[in-house]
Structure to design on (72 residues):
């Protein structure tokens, strides 16, 4: 059986998303790749481009809020 390791993609959408990126990468090392967006519209666009495995997002975002991002 051949095992291939693929990095999981996480998208962090929050005004302080860079803090989440540092914390996740510190804990998970090379197993996780974290992209960041600092507002709802940028996060929505990045989610469409990258199709992450997991999205971490706050509800109080500038532009469009987290609930609207989920609806779209």
């Amino acid at each position: 059986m051949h095992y291939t390791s693929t990095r999981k993609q996480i998208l962090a959408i929050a005004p302080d998303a860079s803090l989440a990126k540092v914390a996740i990468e510190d804990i998970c090392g090379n197993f996780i790749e974290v992209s960041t967006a600092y507002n709802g519209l940028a996060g929505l666009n990045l989610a469409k481009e990258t199709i992450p495995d997991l999205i971490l997002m706050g509800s109080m975002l500038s532009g469009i809020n987290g609930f609207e991002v989920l609806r779209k």
The longest strand covers residues 8-13. The chain has a mean pLDDT of 90.
